[in-house]
Amino acid sequence: MYPIYTLRIIIACITLLAFIDTDQSMTTSKKNNIATKLILRHPKLIHTENIKVISHVQRESDDWQLNTLMLDGVDVPFKYKRKKRYKNLKDYRVNITYYPDSEKVAGFDIEIMKIVRIKVA
């Protein structure tokens, strides 16, 4: 079970690295000090800039708005919570800082990415 999960994380990271290698505008810029400080403090965090949002779904759970993003060329959902509803990010380009995680759905472990910081590019 763990080798499959690890393989999926590696594939997701390689997919994201392929985007970074082909498009220099998606790498971390020098003026993005907050993301750089977060990554230095927490080595498991990953930062991606200028990536296009294909789908954005918001749903209510208790007092929180659960947001799920699907990004261009990535098959893993990116999730985050907010207290209030947010504008629809579909077709926007965003800068995100996130880490890999898993979620149990119907007895299966599903790979997701937890967003720590998101900003419209």
Q: What's the number of structural domains?
A: 1
Main structural class: alpha+beta
Q: Regarding quaternary structure, how should these chains be classified?
A: single chain
Q: Please tally the β strands and state the result.
A: 5
Order of strands, main sheet, comes to 1-2-3-5-4
What value does the average pLDDT take?
80
Euclidean distance between termini CA atoms: 37 Å
- Biggest sheet statistics: 5 strands, mixed, barrel
* Uncertain stretches: 20-28
Q: Which geometry do the CA atoms define?
A: globular
How is the topology of this model organized?
Layout: H1 2-22, H2 33-41, E1 46-61, E2 64-71, E3 78-82, E4 93-105, E5 108-120
What would you note in describing this structure?
The chain has 121 residues and is an alpha+beta fold. It has one domain: OB fold (Dihydrolipoamide Acetyltransferase, E2P). It has helices at residues 2-22, 33-41; strands at residues 46-61, 64-71, 78-82, 93-105, 108-120. The protein has a five-stranded mixed barrel with strand order 1-2-3-5-4. A hairpin with a 2-residue loop joins β1 (46-61) and β2. The chain is globular. Mean pLDDT is 80; it is low at 20-28.
Quick take:
It contains 2 helices and 5 strands, in the order ααβββββ. It is α+β, with helices and mostly antiparallel strands and 121 residues long.
Looking at this protein, list some descriptive labels.
alpha+beta; OB fold (Dihydrolipoamide Acetyltransferase, E2P); 2 helices; 25% helix; 121 residues; single chain
